[in-house]
Amino acid sequence: MTMQPSIIKRQLSRYFRTPATYLNIAVFLTLSTTLGLHSSQLLERNSTDLQDFFQLHPWLYLLLIPALSTQLWADENETGISDLLITLPMTSAELVMGKFFAGWLITAMTLALTLPIVVMVNMLGSADNTVIATQYLASWLLAGSYLSLGCLICAISRHHLIIFILTLSILLVISGLSSVLDALEHQAPIWVIDNVASLSPLSRFTQIDHGVIVLRDCLYFISVIVASLAATTVILNYKTS
């Protein structure tokens, strides 16, 4: 019998018992709402979607995701992952996936708390709720790919500060990849720039954020998640062997 539901409940309980979780969510909601409404001037124009609002999410996730990542293995790093795997009938893969899905559910809950903005957009004009739904999907997939990378870093290091800094640094590099490519536009072959640009999560996110759902973009985020979780499982198996 799989242990994933129990692991998810255990991790969610840990999140809800930690005051930092509520603080991080509150900071994300406050910044996304105030900056989103200010930059898009949503109240002054008849908007049909929330593109300007969601364009801030890749950068705001740089604050939320590292904070959530540091809590994924907090107790296990203190008591020992090998002890947990021995005392409970679970595999490393079940442990990794259970913890990841718990963190991903927290990001889904955070996004759900922004739904009053959708209600406001519908009250102000004729909103395209289909496009808004795809924008939520894009944001959630992006958060999942970021969180899976954070999960991988947690398996490498046990120190909370190092986990936070490494996760933030890697996500910052990934998020700034598009800007670097723009600067190298006339100094590198086009095919090199195009191939590197295809690895940028922001370029994939932007496509879905515009309301265009392309299967390869969704598969890109899913592939990043699967690859990161698989690498995390391999590292845990190596450490506990």
Can you give a write-up of this model?
The chain is mostly helical and 241 residues long. The chain has one domain. Helices cover 80% and strands 0% of the residues. The protein is built from 14 helices and no strands. The protein has helices at 4-17, 19-40, 51-54, 57-70, 74-79, 81-87, 92-112, 115-124, 129-156, 160-175, 177-183, 190-197, 201-209, 215-240. The longest helix has 28 residues, at 129-156. The protein is globular and about 60 Å long. The relative contact order is 0.14. The model has no long low-confidence stretch (mean pLDDT 78).
List keywords for this structure.
241 residues; mainly alpha; 14 helices
Low-pLDDT regions: none
* Number of separate strands: 0
Give the topology string: H per helix, E per strand.
HHHHHHHHHHHHHH
Main sheet record: none
Large-scale geometry: globular
Q: Give me the secondary-structure category.
A: mainly alpha
- Average pLDDT, rounded to a whole number, is 78
Integer tally of domains: 1
H/I helix tally: 14
What is the CA–CA distance across the termini? 23 Å
Radius of gyration: 19 Å
